Amino acid sequence: MNYNRLGNTGLLVSDLCLGAMTFGDTERGATKTESINMIHRYLDAGGNHIDTANVYTGGRSEEYVGAAIQDRRESVVLATKVRVKTGAGVNEEGLSRHHIMQAVESSLRRLQTDYIDLYYMHVWDLLTPIEESLRAMEDLVRSGKVRYIGVSNFKAWQVMKAVATSELKNLVRPVAAQYQYSLVKRDIEYEFSDLCESQGIGLIPWGPLGGGFLSGKYKRGAQPESGRISTSSDDVEEAWHRRNTERNWRIVDAVGHIAVERGASYPQVALAWLKQQPAVCSVIMGVRTMAQLDDNLGAAELTLSAEELKRLDTVSTLPELYPYHMVAQYARRLNS
Ligand SMILES: NC(=O)c1ccc[n+]([C@@H]2O[C@H](COP(=O)([O-])OP(=O)(O)OC[C@H]3O[C@@H](n4cnc5c(N)ncnc54)[C@H](OP(=O)(O)O)[C@@H]3O)[C@@H](O)[C@H]2O)c1
Predict the structure, then answer these.
(1) How far is ligand 1, taken at its centre, from the CA of residue 183, in Å?
(2) Which residues are identified as catalytic?
(3) DSSP-derived secondary structure letter, 48
């Protein structure tokens, strides 16, 4: 396992982060024992970065993570999130000082710890001025309950507003940013790869297998009957009708060819590509079973060659972003 700096901090996080979003999902996720076993397997393999959120599986995800890391808390970089609705009250959501202060106490209790290493603002809050949220975060850092903060799913102007407010008011500054990012979801590159690099923010992709689409288990023309991909809902990013495009199948084919050539699995190739992208410091794997975890952990040892990266890049670059990439390259040439 390799370790990278979290943005411009001195904190090191492993290339592969363990996502806990499905731990405790009573329909399709892992039970408490399975979750704890997977967390231990991940830590034993050298991983040190675990990602959860207060809203995952109604709080069970945080509880299971907390139970699993009791005897090795100091070696874990523990990330969780605040923002999404947690109860019926009008103030039980958002990034207000009120909700942040309430939510952090609940997370600390469920996680059985007295500090969170990385506390994310899960989604932008339209109602709360960012200065109010950052002041609450600053107080949490000063009190020792939080060590670093991050943003998640913010638009580029929202990230920059948070950074500028932190700098102007001398408040804690975001050092990590989570976005959905994979070979089949590359639109974030245009705004966020160089934003993160220029601002010393670690880019932390979620959804690295496109919800499982890149795992190689789905075939052209065969809509699965169950699982995340099977849905036809417009609200789900990884819904079959979105994934089932010729461009995406060509990406899966390219991943498969490299997997065969390298004696690796599809998920290992897709994860390896992502961990080698600019500004990426830790890729959040989502796993439902121990077999999936063992498979994906193999990506830690896989480094793709320049030629392999180029093949994957060629097949997956979004055509609609070409003009922007050309302008960006032109700007780089002018400045060199
Ligand atoms: N910040 C945010 O807003 C946000 C949003 C979402 C997620 N996240 C974080 O990112 C993490 C990962 O996201 P994600 O679950 O969307 O990731 P993903 O890698 O795109 O999808 C994971 C799913 O792919 C399938 N899979 C994984 N490994 C596999 C393997 N080796 N072989 C076959 N199938 C495999 C499993 O689903 P099936 O077995 O059901 O096919 C698994 O649940 C989450 O746990 C969470 O921590 C953050």
Answers:
(1) 14
(2) 56
(3) -
CATH 3.40.50.720 fits 3-335, yes or no: no
Name residue 86's amino acid. T
Q: Is the pLDDT of residue 82 over 80?
A: yes
Q: What's the rounded Cα separation, in Å, for the pair 138 and 287?
A: 33
- Place 227 in a pLDDT band, splitting at 50, 70 and 90: confident
Q: What are phi and psi of 205, to 5 degrees?
A: -70, 140
**Ligand 1: distance of its center to the CA of 243 in Å?**
15
Enumerate residues lining ligand 1, CB below 6 A. 19-22, 51, 152-153, 178, 206-212, 215, 217, 227-228, 267, 284-288, 292, 295-296
How far is it, in rounded angstroms, from Cα 61 to Cα 31?
10
User: Which residues lie closer than 8 Å to 71 by C-beta, 6 or more apart?
Assistant: none
Q: Judge whether residue 328 has pLDDT over 80.
A: no
What pLDDT, on the 0 to 100 scale, is given for residue 126? 97
Domain range list for the chain: 3-335
- Asked whether the whole model's pTM tops 0.85, one would answer yes
